[in-house]
Each structure stands twice: as structure tokens, then as C-alpha cells.
Amino acid sequence: MSTESRILITAPTGNVGPHVATWLVEAGIPVRALVLEDDPGVGKLPGQVEICHGDLADPDTMDAALDGVSGVFWMWPFFMLSTETAPAVLAKIEKHAQRIAFVSSVGVHIGLERRDNNCHAYLEELIVRTSLDWTCLRTTGFMANILAFASQIRGGDVVRFPHGAAARTSVHEADLAAVGARALTSDGHARKNYLVTGPEVLTQQEQVHILGEVLGRELTWEDIHAEEALKELVAAGWPPSYADGALTYFEMLTKEPEVMSHAVQDVTGKPARTFRQWAEEHADRFS
After folding, report:
1. Where are the domains of the chain?
2. For residue 201, what are the contacts with CB-CB under 8 A and spacing of at least 6?
């Protein structure tokens, strides 16, 4: 793909978008970010990124952001926005771009997520009907999800949450970003579903232990009832169906480990980063 091609990132200021932007900037590829007018996270993006204001909730605000775009790194902010406008958003993208990389979920890969929940499976179904060269990134949990425990860790040495024995293959956000960026800027990825995971199986309890080693502290895990955690997640802004689904999935992973792949190595040519590497990079966020 020509370096004159421009890539648009939606929901660009979360855990993944800044990594995508950095990868593209370093590759010399022009990148544009679709952000809300009052998005406080714009400072996470490299200075070379073109900022364009628009809202996935109002597809007509996206025209300027899509002008001259060849590919879109598509993340949908499910916690903040229903998928009601997704068909119109995708129609806009199809008019301008040739490629799309969509951040989907392992739940689709294993058949756990149903199309009628209006989440990742639904958006995948919309995408495959288009003329776009699509790539679906069916990712496991982000390593950054452990930041949900940051306040507990800053305040003490015990993490309280259900299912500490849930065995995960969490992925470093930069690795997910690299796979998506590659799919948008090189050939051979069209109409493919990639299971994107980390390189190791670690229980939630083991992740906390590793983080403690990096911090120079002994952190321990204490299982609590799922009902208690459900109330806390909903109070923190999780839609009840998402919170309940996550806890049910974690319980499943106490019996059988999460699936794992070598997609990061295969697509990027580099080994996937370990959780310890992530913890060393982000240790300051827990102190």
C-alpha cells in the first residue's frame, strides 16, 4: 500500500487506538483519528495524527473524517454506544475505504457470542456483507484489563474479584494494534478472521502475582461471589448483560483454558509480548 494512503482510527483514545496510531506514524503512513469534541484522551495520540471530530452515533458527522481514507481501524465503543447506527456507519466507510480491520472478540471465535446480542458477532455479520477487504481481529482480553484492579492495588495488597483460577491468553494492546495495522497496509489479509492472543496461558491470580513481582510487592488474590462483583461492575458503568456475560465466561475458564494462537507472530513477524513485559511497561499506573 502506498504511503500516501490514509488510515482512519475510530475510538482512537482507548487502550488500543494510540498503539495503532504510533505504528502507522512510525511506518510513515498518514493517520487520522475520529474523536468526539470533548474527548480528554486526545493527548495519548502522536502529534502527527490528524484529529477529525465526529461521532459514531451520528454517521453524517463522519464524512470529513472519511475523505481520502483507504482503510479504517474500526473499534466500536460498546459500553458507551448501542450498535443502532452501525449499519449507517459501515455504509459510509464502504463508500470511501477499501479495507477495514475490526476489533472483534474471542466470543465469536468459540461460538459463545450470539449475533442477536448486537455486539461483535452482529458487526461481523454486517462487515462480511460489504465489498470491503475486511479482517476481523477476534481478540482475547487485553492485558490492560488488569487496570480495573489498580485502585485495589494502590490501596492494599489484596485483589478481590471472582474466578482467580480463570486461565487467560490475554494480548498486549500493541500486538493487537500491529496485527490490525498490518492488515490495513499490506496484502494477504482480506476476508480473514484472526484469533489474536498473547503467547502464554496465565490465570488471573498468576497475572496479579507477576504484577506484584514487578512492583516489588507480594500481591494476593481473594475470590468473591460473582453476584457481588456483578453489582460492582454495573455500578461502574458496565451494561448488565456484558457484566454477567464476562463473569460467566471467567467461570468457564476455570475449567478449560482460553484458546491461544500464533497470529501475532504469523502476521507481524515478531513474537507476542508477555504479560510481564506489559506489567514492566505500566508499573507506574499501580503506584
Report:
1. 6-140+173-196+260-271
2. 167, 168, 169, 257, 258, 260
Per-residue pLDDT band at 4 (split at 50, 70, 90): low
Mean pLDDT score, 112-130: 87
CATH number given to 6-140+173-196+260-271: 3.40.50.720
Min mean pLDDT across 60-69, 171-180, 237-246, 259-268 is at 237-246
> Residue 260: phi, psi to the nearest 5?
-140, 150
What tens digit of pLDDT does each residue of 142-179 get?
999 999 999 999 999 999 999 999 999 999 999 999 99
Write the CA distances from 59 to 7, 94, 113, 122, integer angstroms: 18, 13, 26, 18
In the predicted structure, residue 214 carries a pLDDT above the cut 90: yes
Q: What is the DSSP string of 34-103?
A: EE-TT-TTGGGS-TTSEEEE-BTTBGGGGHHHHTTEEEEEE---TTT--STTHHHHHHHHHHH-SEEEEE
Contacts of residue 3, defined as CB under 8 A and 6 or more positions apart, other chains included, come to: 27, 28, 29, 30
Please report the pLDDT score of residue 2 as a whole number.
41
What would the DSSP string read from start to end of 181-220?
HHHHHSSS-TTEEEEE--SS-EEHHHHHHHHHHHHTS--E
Nearest to 20 by CA among 7, 4, 1: 7
Give the pLDDT score at 218: 97
Largest CA distance in the chain: 54
DSSP state of 142: B
Separation between Cα atoms, residue 279 and residue 190, nearest integer Å = 33
Q: Do the beta carbons of residue 210 and residue 275 sit within 8 Å?
A: yes
